[in-house]
Description:
The chain is an all-alpha fold. It has one domain. The chain has helices at 2-11, 16-33, 36-61, 63-68, 74-107, 112-140, 142-162, 173-204. Helix 2 packs antiparallel against helix 3 (36-61), helix 5 (74-107) packs antiparallel against helix 6 (112-140) and helix 6 packs parallel to helix 8 (173-204). The longest helix has 34 residues, at 74-107. The chain starts with a helix and ends with a helix.
Amino acid sequence: xxxxxxxxxxxxxxxxxxxxxxxxxxxxxxxxxxxxxxxxxxxxxxxxxxxxxxxxxxxxxxxxxxxxxxxxxxxxxxxxxxxxxxxxxxxxxxxxxxxxxxxxxxxxxxxxxxxxxxxxxxxxxxxxxxxxxxxxxxxxxxxxxxxxxxxxxxxxxxxxxxxxxxxxxxxxxxxxxxxxxxxxxxxxxxxxxxxxxxxxxxxxxxx
Length: 207
């Protein structure tokens, strides 16, 4: 599995400079406009897209056919994608905390504790979206699943934005606080279910 993850990292090396430039741009933007929430959202979103990008490269190069000709269990291939996705999310959270901490030292926009809570929340949301889109990618492939991925990202966002217009109030702090404590368990449960579904899909898939 280690070799599969290293392979994905090398596949992304051409985009390293682009990602670094984006990180710097949004860090400067957030510092100038004092908007750390955008920094967290953008960087975590970029890290969410890394596993998708590696799967696109695999699909283009017919990697799966080659991998399955070797003694690599299909389950291991699926698990390597999930592990890479988790590593990418943790990397995104770490980058936000480091850049956000530096920005806070100069701007004093928010407390470090608030930054940590916000970053972990955004990271959890990013991981949740990955649990939704990875089974779709394994089932349909990246090219065919692009429209479905857009729906996964934008439909929940539009629903949340429309709630106030429909007269539906946001959940109170008393409701959100227990959900915040339970959210790691909820995301972990959804992640395990997503892995099981993806393994089932990949075991039945023909290349």
